[in-house]
Specification:
Structural class: alpha+beta
Strand content: 15-25%
Number of helices: 6
Shape: globular
Order of helices and strands: HHHHEEEEEHEEEEHE
Radius of gyration: 50 Å
CATH architecture of one domain: 3-Layer(aba) Sandwich
CATH topology of one domain: Protein Transport Mog1p, Chain A
Number of strands: 10
């Protein structure tokens, strides 16, 4: 045997011995022990400190569907219409819409009555604040303390009644409308403040008058009625002028004076 082969065999034997010794050191002392597994390396992305999102949160986070043109048309508010008499009002309605919704005033008939005008009298009262002249009515009418109006004539009270005839003038107490007839309607509605509670109107006549408008109407309150009229005229002042006359049924013999009033109201000139 050559020396080269002897040395090669010794080297192999030495290597085998070293491997065997290493295996003995690594194996567990008892056969039922399990070697610890290596720990996985941490993720390079840090975990969130907050709680994990729930399924419901994930659903709510989804973008909502874009509304279609049909849905947009459905959602658009309907155009506002004029309420019928007696319906409730929402803020923002015009004065005329409020008028049409007031149960105390019916709509004017398509063909309202007309007043047969009388010849104006010569005696007038000049109201320079309204620019109007109104008839100065004969006795038993008499002048009275005007406030809050600018002129006032009254009939004497009858025993057992707290209502009496009254003729007043004042600057228009409501907002003037584009139509003088509409302005007169609003003025008639305003006069209900000077009639007993629960009063309602029934129209008797409506017609243009000297560039303005006049309305004659009956006012019913309980078992009683008054006859009344308004005349709206532009007297050249900052606001149009209003003449208002009312006479209760306890003084019905003076109802004819209402015709004298509406016939005699004119602009100062």
């Amino acid at each position: 045997m050559r020396m080269r082969d002897v040395y090669r065999g010794l080297a192999v034997a030495t290597a085998v011995a070293v491997v065997a010794a290493t295996l003995v050191m690594l194996l567990p002392s008892r056969p039922d022990e399990v070697a610890a597994r290596p720990v996985a390396a941490p993720s390079t992305v840090p975990a969130s400190s907050g709680p994990a999102p729930s399924a419901s949160a994930s659903v709510s986070a989804e973008p909502s569907a874009t509304p279609s043109a049909a849905d947009s048309a459905t959602a658009a508010p309907a155009p506002r219409t004029t309420p019928s008499p007696g319906s409730s009002l929402a803020p923002g309605y015009t004065a005329m819409e409020a008028l049409y919704a007031d149960r105390r005033l019916p709509k004017l008939p398509k063909k309202p009555g007309r007043v047969a005008m009388a010849k104006p009298g010569k005696r007038v009262f000049q109201d320079k604040r309204t620019g109007l002249a109104v008839p100065r009515l004969a006795k038993p009418w008499k002048a009275h303390h005007a406030a809050p109006f600018t002129s006032k004539q009254v009939l004497p009270l009858r025993r057992g009644s707290n209502q009496r005839g009254m003729l007043v003038t004042c600057p228009l107490p409501i907002e003037a409308q584009k139509s003088v007839r509409d302005t007169a309607l609003l003025a008639a509605r305003w006069t209900l403040n000077h009639h007993p509670k629960g009063a309602r109107i029934r129209w008797l006549a409506s017609q243009p008058d000297k560039g303005g408008w006049l309305l004659v109407y009956q006012v019913r309150y309980g078992k009683h009625v008054s006859r009344a009229a308004v005349v709206v005229l532009d007297g050249g002042m900052a606001k149009p002028g209003l003449a208002f006359v009312t006479v209760p049924d306890s003084q019905r013999t003076r109802w004819r004076d209402i015709t004298r009033v509406v016939s005699g109201v004119r602009v100062l000139g």
